[in-house]
Amino acid sequence: MPVTPPSERPEPVMDNVLSYARRPANPAVAANRDLETPLTVEQRSAMIDAVAVKMTEVLDILRIDHREDPNTRDTPRRVAKMYVEELLAGRFSAPPKITEFATTQNFDELIVTGPIEVRTTCAHHLMPIYGTAIVGIMPSADGRLIGLSKYDRVVQHFARRFQVQEELVNQIGEYLVDVTKPRGLAVRIKAVHMCKTHRGVNATHASQMVSSAYFGELKTNDRLKSEFLQECLGLERSGQP
Ligand SMILES: [Zn+2]
Asked: CATH code at 59?
């Protein structure tokens, strides 16, 4: 049989993925950073194919008979889709567009919104982290207030990647400060880390981690900060994970 010259062979899926990953315009970046350019539908689908191939190898190495076992037959592709379309979706897509702002003229009070559901994945162990976020906003007179559901979308965007909780609060805060230019802003997340409850020390779900980020007047004004914390305690009680 004649041998097909290399140029006429179909490009393997993995090569597609690597060829766009190698492009200087869209290089690999840290796990909780956005890619420079969001991925197209085709790129995502090539990425799912490539991850599924590797997940198949992982199950083989772990001696899981996914070819015969109906429980794991579709697991490689299921896991690949979950990574690309859900757990890491934030880094492959553009941050939520925030275009509508309410006027905040003569508004001189702290606004606190939450609890917002947080579902993210720990960058160290790839295990779930779940809990709640609360955002405090001290708008500026000529500043911009966004619809309350947008805060949830921003939290979700930065949560959909492999994260470290301390960096997640900062990323959410920096983005909101950048877009809404408030006098002050605070973000607090209280969450259970399953890498602590499901393995390692097998801690109970009561064992949580709290981290916060403060900006502008919420950083420098103790009265505002304690008002925010007071509101957090009430809201967190109503929204236990
Ligand atoms: Zn972890």
From this structure: 1.10.286.10
CA 189 to chain centre: 13
Q: How far is the CA of 124 from the centre of ligand 1 (A)?
A: 5
Same domain, 234 and 150: yes
Give the pair of three-digit tokens for residue 169: 């609060």
Q: Are residues 217 and 122 in the same domain?
A: yes
Q: What is the pLDDT of residue 21?
A: 47
Half-sphere exposure (CA, 13 Å, Cβ side) for 65? Answer: 3
Q: How far is the CA of 193 from the centre of ligand 1 (A)?
A: 7
106, 175, 174: which is closest to 139 by C-alpha? 106
How many structural domains does the chain have?
Answer: 2
What one-letter code names the amino acid at 170?
Answer: N
pLDDT band at residue 25 using 50, 70 and 90 as cut-offs: low
Q: How far is the CA of 121 from the centre of ligand 1 (A)?
A: 8
Distance 6 CA to ligand 1 centre (A): 44
Query: Mean of the pLDDT values across residues 190-211?
Result: 91
pTM confidence score:
0.85
* Model confidence pLDDT, tens digit, residues 32-76: 999 988 999 999 999 999 999 999 999 999 999 999 999 999 999
Q: Which residues contact 212 (CB under 8 A, 6 or more apart)?
A: 169, 186, 187, 188, 189
Please tell me the distance between residue 208's alpha carbon and the centre of ligand 1 in angstroms. Answer: 13
Instruction: Tell how far the Cα of 212 is from the centroid of ligand 1, in angstroms.
Output: 18
Asked if the structure places residue 2 within a domain, the reply is no
User: 223 C-alpha to center of ligand 1: Å?
Assistant: 34
Domain span at residue 151 reads: 102-238
Looking at the structure, tell me whether residues 70 and 176 fall in a common domain: no
Q: Flag whether 97 is in a domain.
A: no
